[in-house]
Structure formats: structure tokens, C-alpha cells
Amino acid sequence: MKAAVLYSARDIRIEEVETPKLQTPGDVLIRVRASGICGSDLHTYRLAEPADPGQIMGHEYSGEVAEIGNEVQGLQVGDAVVAVSFGANAEYIRIPREGRGIIIPMPPTVSFAEAATIEPLANSVHIANLADPSDGDTIVVMGAGIIGLGTIQALRAMSSAKIIAVDFSDFRLSMARELGAEVTINAGQEDPYRKVLELTGSTSVAFMEATPAGNVDTVCDCAGWLAGHTGTPPVQQGLQMLRPKGKLIEHSIFEKTPEINFFLLARKEIQLQGSWGFTLEEYNQAADMIRSGKVDRKPLVTHEFPLDEAKKAFETQLQYEEAIKIVLKP
User: Fold this and answer.
1) How far apart are CA 42 and CA 44, in angstroms?
2) Is 177 helix (H, G, I), strand (E, B) or coil?
3) Domain with 26 in it
4) pTM: predicted TM-score of the whole model, two decimal places
5) Alpha-carbon span 330 to 314, nearest angstrom
6) Closest Cα partner for 92 from 6, 21, 7?
7) In this predicted structure, what is the pLDDT of residue 51?
8) Which of 50, 157, 203, 269 is 20–30 Å from 29 (CA)?
9) What is the average pLDDT value for the chain, to the nearest integer?
């Protein structure tokens, strides 16, 4: 079978590799039809040597059941499914017996490209569940990539909270407005903290008069801090924006360590909540949101490339002003 194999930073090659075979009666072989490029894939492609040179990346994908072991229940050959496991930038992928729970059948009304976005949506659902939004809350989403935009979708599906989106890309901010953000802030054109104070008002905090608190209930940081970024890190801006006893949810990748004023955290008694991945329940919750039409993922799939053009696909995913989610079609 064909696969996109990564050897080192920005060195990805299309090669013929052995097609995986069923190893136990509980295994499932999936013919991959759509595989998304994840932010973690992109970081590895752009900056780092893979942990295992010669690895096949990709873990968010959909496809058709090609073969099943004789102990597999609830699936038939030809079923359209979505799954999560590593090595999906290839024509086929084997799911071992213990991974059966991550294989979800999908209806014909959902395209393979849409289904391949369920895994990142599950991350966004996890963030939204941690935010626990209430009607009337003000929530700032830092970063309008696939996770931030999915967080806006999930928050909007759960509540009528006021959502403010922050990013450097006008293209992505336009998408944020389309998906439910009432206000967007281009961090390259204005100071997000000052703009939020203007929008929400401010609260004076004793011993911190020079840094008044905003009136934001929750900040969801989906931006992180990349190696080439300068200025005030989004997580620091988030701490400044929050009202006393507000909540900051941190779900992002950091290529370098940001400088943070921890006195803000202590003096305002902010709840700092880490976020990573999702639960199986949230994975199914994300699938239900797409199947039911509560969220529309079609606008987020901005490009589709054949597997043979994997390098071009990864390079295009680096273009933040034109790409949100890129899907490979083996």
C-alpha cells in the first residue's frame, strides 16, 4: 500500500509499505478514505525529528471497513466508520481488538472528510465541557484554528454564552464569526487585553491597579506559544482578561516556555485548568453533534489532497491565512 512516511523535519515521502494484516480475531482493517492533518502532526513535520524516523503520521481519519476478524461484532465489511489511531496517512490501517471502542459507524449523510474532523471536535468538546458554559457567560477563545473553532461550535451548541475569538488571521476570524463568535479580535492589529477591557469593562483588584481585571468568565487558550512568536503570550493575556475567580482552560502546544505573571493567578484566585485529549464519551458526543447536524464541519475542511501530494498538503497547512483543516484522501 502507499503511505506518507516522515523521516525528519519537512522530509515526507510517498512509499510502498506492507499492507497491515489482521493479527487476532478481534482486529479490524480499515480502508482510509480521509485523514486530517493535526496540529501535532504539523509541529512534528515543521520542527522536530520524529521519535521513530520512518513513521507514518496521522491519527484523525475515516474510511470503510475492509476486513474484520471473526469475533468482531457490530461491524460489516463496507461500513463507513470513523476511528482514532496512529498511522492513518496511508491506504489501510489496522485497529487491534482493544481499539474496537474507537470505531464508530457513520451515516451516508456525513462525508468522509467531515467524519475525519470528529477527533479534533472531541478535543473541543472536552474544552467546552471543562468550561461548563452558562447562558450569559462571557468566554474568550484564544486561537481560531481547528480546535478553537470547534470549541466555538461546541460552546454555541451548549449555551448562548457571549463568545469572543482572538487570532492573527482575518480568514480564521471570519470563520469564527460564521460559527458563532459575536466579537473577533485580530491580535496583530490591536491588544486583545485592552480590547476586551473596552468590550467588557474592568474591575480594579487591590495591589494590581496597573493591571485591571476584565470581566471575562472563562478563557479557552487554544493558541499556545510557537517558537517564532513574540509579544505577550496568549495565556498571559488570558490571565489579564479574566475576572476575579475566573477560569482559564489551557489546551495547546507550547514550542517554548511563555513568561507568565503568576501573581495574577494567585491574586485573582483564578482557576487554571489543563486540558488534554478527550474521553470516549466526549468522542461519541462529538460524533453525535455531527450526525445530528448540531455542528457543521464542512466549512472547516478548506483543502483536500490526494495522498501522493502529502508534502504539498503539509506545506499548505502551514499557511494560516488560507488553511484551517486539510484532509488527505488516500
Assistant:
1) 5
2) helix
3) 2-117+297-329
4) 0.96
5) 14
6) 21
7) 63
8) 50
9) 95
For cell 524516523, the residue is 53
Taking residue 279's Cβ as centre, other Cβ atoms within 10 Å add up to: 12
Q: What single string gives the DSSP state of each residue in 218-232? A: EEEE---B-TT--SS
Tens-digit pLDDT profile for residues 248-277? 999 998 888 999 999 999 999 999 999 999
Tell me: do 68 and 162 sit in the same domain.
no
Q: Alpha carbon 159 to chain centroid distance?
A: 20
Residue 279, domain member (yes or no): no
Q: Is the pLDDT of residue 49 over 70?
A: no
What is the rounded CA–CA span in Å between residue 58 and residue 37? 6
Is residue 40 included in any domain, yes or no? yes
- The one-letter code for the residue type at 229 is H
Q: What are 275-289's pLDDT values in tens digits? A: 999 999 999 999 999
Place of cell 474568550: 140
Query: d(Cα 186, Cα 172) in Å, to the nearest integer?
Result: 10
